[in-house]
Amino acid sequence: MRAYLTTIIESGTESYDLEIVEAASGFEALKTLPHHKFDAILTDINMPDINGLELVSFLKNHPVYRSIPIMVISTESTEEDRRRAAALGAEEYLVKPFQAGDLVEKLRRLLRVA
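Given the sequence above, the corresponding structure tokens read:
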């Protein structure tokens, strides 16, 4: 899934200078944070060790990371899932499976380059 997302993002935002950093788990994402400046973060809800909602909560409650826009991409598709993510601070929510154009559109909104 990470490779698929990277391909969509690279092809859909090729005119922008983006560096994509991948993390295989929530814990790996937390370890990566201090080493890069992130303009946006995409996360799944279902991840090993730290789930995506826990990651969103941590980021939005941390003074250094709270302003980074977040998109949740997940198979969890209920309105309650969307509300929980939004309540924790996620600005966008995308349900799998999705159209590539929907991902690019939401990412552009996050980056404010629409």
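The beta strands are 41-43, 70-74, 92-95. Try to locate this feature in the token string yourself.
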